[in-house]
Amino acid sequence: MRAVRYHEYGGSDVLQTEEVMRPEPDKGELLVAVHAAGINPVDTYFREGAYKPASLPWIPGSDVAGVVTAVGDGVTEFKAGDEIYATALGNWLQGTCAEYVVVPTEMAAPLPESVSFAEAAGAALVGVTAWQSLIATANLEPAETVLIHGGSGGVGHMAVQIASATGARVVTTASPKYHDTLEELGADVVLNYARDDLQEAIEDAGKPDVILDHRLDEYLPLDCEVAAKGARIVAIGNEEAQATFPSVPAARAKALSVHHVSMFNTPDVGTVLKRLGTLMDSGKLTPLVYDTYPLDEIAAAHDAVLDESFLGKLVVTP
Ligand SMILES: NC(=O)c1ccc[n+]([C@@H]2O[C@H](COP(=O)([O-])OP(=O)(O)OC[C@H]3O[C@@H](n4cnc5c(N)ncnc54)[C@H](OP(=O)(O)O)[C@@H]3O)[C@@H](O)[C@H]2O)c1
């Protein structure tokens, strides 16, 4: 099969499209013909060696949507021909930027009926991250106010919609060109993250009970200032640990909690994907795909996911 691999860590130029052996599904696993694979910032962290994959050479990619072509022993939930989507691959398991990938059944769910392969592949990792952060970790409740930094991001645009679906009041930040779309997706208040009076504007919108923060180094002091008493701050970015210490007195005064979430630790990814699928099929969650690349142009997608501004997701198709 054709697969993208890197044999050493480095820039996007280490990504090569190669012919490799098609994998076989082991017990409890699915062999999936990849129709679309999502691109995420974490793919570049692995490629650069900041996070270490299980071995080299390595196939990047966490997200997949495709068709089951074979199943391993003991698999009863899925059969050949089923359309599925899955995530949390590309870490200790080889990734999804290939013609075929092996997926443990617990990381897969049926493809939602209302979305394309590309939309589902774009939705998986960011949807699970938003769900783990807002629902499983922060226990966001309907009457609460949530602040979502960077609402136009992959995680951000899913988080805005999931929070809105719970009935919470949604305040988010984004560049002005994305404000109208984020309001259509369910945000009650959208603020330009670059405005000088961001803190006052957030306070005017209502003190948040839950904050989803993808840049804790930059925003933790502000989070502590604007947060309601007892607020839960969920951090998902690659922040430095020492960024948290100057904010300890403010956090103590309001009994704030800071949770660090990695979607790779989600105990049952398939169950979260099923719930996201229910939201998609009921029209409450619309994953946006900004651009699609052929497999052998993956280097451009890896560069764009870090360097370009866009609303939605980048996807590769083999
Ligand atoms: N912990 C986990 O499990 C997990 C899972 C997924 C992602 N992440 C991390 O979460 C972060 C976001 O991921 P993503 O996939 O959503 O990335 P993304 O699609 O690249 O989105 C990043 C967003 O940040 C916005 N942004 C840039 N500068 C900002 C600022 N100063 N203040 C507020 N927002 C700003 C961007 O808006 P503009 O385009 O307007 O600049 C963009 O909407 C990354 O660090 C990623 O590694 C962690």
Question: What does the model show?
Answer:
There is one protein chain. The chain has about 325 residues and is of the alpha/beta class. The protein folds into two domains: about 1-125 and about 265-315, Medium-chain alcohol dehydrogenases, catalytic domain (Quinone Oxidoreductase, Chain A, domain 1, Alpha-Beta Complex), CATH 3.90.180; about 125-265, Rossmann fold (3-Layer(aba) Sandwich), CATH 3.40.50.720. It is about 30% helix and about 25% strand. It contains nine helices and 15 strands. The strands form three sheets. Strands 3, 4, 5, 6, 7, 14 and 15 form a seven-stranded mixed β-sheet that branches. Strands 10-9-8-11-12-13 form a six-stranded parallel β-sheet, sandwiched between helices. A two-stranded antiparallel ribbon has the order 1-2. Helix 2 packs across helix 3. The chain is globular and about 55 Å long. It starts with a strand and ends with a strand. The relative contact order is 0.16. The mean pLDDT is about 95. The structure holds NADP nicotinamide-adenine-dinucleotide phosphate.
Summed up:
This protein is 30% helix and 23% strand. By secondary structure, it is α/β, with parallel strands linked by helices. The protein folds into two domains: 2-124 and 266-317, Medium-chain alcohol dehydrogenases, catalytic domain (Quinone Oxidoreductase, Chain A, domain 1), CATH 3.90.180.10; 126-263, Rossmann fold.
